[in-house]
Automatic annotation (TrEMBL):
Gene symbol of the encoding locus: MOCS3
Positions annotated as active site in the UniProt record: C251 (glycyl thioester intermediate), C425 (cysteine persulfide intermediate)
Pathway(s) annotated for this protein in UniProt: tRNA modification; 5-methoxycarbonylmethyl-2-thiouridine-tRNA biosynthesis; Cofactor biosynthesis; molybdopterin biosynthesis
Source domain of life: Eukaryota
Classification of source organism: Eukaryota, Viridiplantae, Chlorophyta, core chlorophytes, Chlorophyceae
Enzyme class: transferase
Coiled coil: none
Residues covered by the Rhodanese domain: 370-465
Protein name per Swiss-Prot or TrEMBL: Adenylyltransferase and sulfurtransferase MOCS3
InterPro entries given in the database record: MOCS3/Uba4, Rhodanese-like_dom, Rhodanese-like_dom_sf, ThiF/MoeB/HesA, ThiF_NAD_FAD-bd, Ubiquitin-activating_enz
Protein location: Cytoplasm, Cytosol
Free-text comment on the cofactor: Binds 1 zinc ion per subunit.
UniProt record, GO biological process: Mo-molybdopterin cofactor biosynthetic process; tRNA wobble position uridine thiolation
Obligatory cofactor(s): Zn(2+)
Amino acid sequence: MRTTDKRKNCVPGLLHYEACPTRDFTGDCTGAYKWLITAIYFWRTNFFVKSKQAAKAGTYAAEHSLNKHQVERYSRHLLLNSFGLTAQEKLCSSSVLIVGCGGLGSPAALYLAACGVGTLGLMDHDSVDASNLHRQVIHTEERVGTSKAQSGRKACEALNSLIKIRVHEEALSANIALSIIGQYDMVLDCSDNAPTRYLISDACVVTGKPLVSAAAVGTDGQLTVYNYGEDGPCYRCLFPKPPAPENCSRCSDAGVLGVVPGIMGALQALEAIKIASGKGDVLNKRMLVFDALSGKFMTVKLRSKRAGCAACGEHPTLSMSSLPEFDYKAFTGQEAQDGPPVPLQLIPSSERLLPRDAKTILDQALKDSGAIEPIVLDVRPRIQYQLMHLPHAVNIPIEELENRMPEVKELLSNRSGSSPLLVICRRGNASQLAVQQLRMAGYIDAVDIIGGMTQWSRDVDSSMPIL
Ligand SMILES: [Zn+2]
C-alpha cells in the first residue's frame, strides 16, 4: 500500500511513486536490492544525463526534452493518450512556413503557435485592410494599415512566447522560394492566387517538403496535402494546366463567408500537426470538400502522382536550377498577388475622365437641365450597385450590356444636352471594356471614369464606402 513514507523512500528525483524502479521488487522501496536495481535503472535510462539537464531547471528529473513551462502549457496534449509526449516533442522541434496571413493563415498561425510548433514562419507582403477583419482574425482594428506578417507575429507572440517566429515581409517569388521554403519542414499554402499556388507546390516538390493546401471562396472550402507519402500527387499533377483567369474567383470579387476560411485554416493547422507529430492519417491523395450552407464535409479520392508531371514526374523539368527562372505569371496569365486586380489600360488615359472631372460634368448637367440626366451607366454587378451608387446612375451589369443595348438607346434618347455617356464600374477595368462595347455599337461619346467607384470615394465623396 502506498504511503507518504514509501514515497519519501523512492529513488530521489523521480516524479511519480509508480515509476520508482525499486517498488515492484521491494514493496516499500527499501531493502538490499534497492540500490542495485536503481543503479541498473539509471544506466538503462541514461538517468544521469537527463538528471543533469533537468537540474538546470529544478530538482526533478524527467525523461523528455520539454522544460517546465512547456510541460505546463502543453499538458492537455501530453495527457492525451492518442497524442502524448513523443508527439509533442516532435511538434516542438518542427518548423512550419505559412504563406499568406489572411483568412486561412490567421487561424492556422494561431493554432500552430498555440500548440507549440518550434518555429513558425509568417509570410505576407500585404498590409491589413478593414475589409480583411471579418475573416482574418489574427489582425486587429489597431493594426489596419500595418504589415500583415508583422501583425501576425504580434498575435502569435502574445499567444505563445515559447516559440520562435520568423517574419517574411515579401511576396513569394521564384527566385527566393527555394531558399525560404528550404528553411522549414513543411509549408501551408494560405494564398489565393494561381501563380503562387503553382510556385509553392513546385518549390515544395523540389525541396522535398509536404504542402498543406486549402482554399475558401464564397461558402465553400477545400483541403488536401500535396507531395506527401510514396506517390502523393503535387498541385501540378492535379492541375497540369492553369485555369483561365476568368474562372479564378477571389474573395475580393466573389465574396466569402468569414467563418469558412476560419474552418479551413484550422483544418490546415490540424494536418500540419499530424505531419509534424507523426500522429493520425494525413489527408494526402484525398481532398476534403466543405459546403458551409449544408454543413456537409465530403472526401474525394485524388489520383496518384502523374508520370508526366513537370514537377514530380519521372522526368521533371523543374529543378533547383530551373525553378527560379520559371515565369509563373506567363504560365498562369495572372499576377502573383492577392487583392485587387491590376489596373487595365485598354483605353488611352486622355480619352478617360478622372472622378473629379466627371463630377464637374454631372454638376454642369444638373445646372443646365435642372435635373441630372440619365448619363451615368453603372456596369457593376447588381449587388454592388445595391450597396451604393451615384445618384440617378442606371445599372446594366457588363455581362448583360450587349443584350441590353436597346435600353441604352432608350436612356440616351432622353438626353437633351451634349453631355457624354459616363460609364463607371468598381475599379475602372470593366468600365473600359464597356466603353469599347458601346463605341462598337455607335455610342462614340461614351467615356469611362478612371478608378471607378473606389477612386470616386477617395477623390470626390469620402462618405461613400469602398468595397
Ligand atoms: Zn506532380
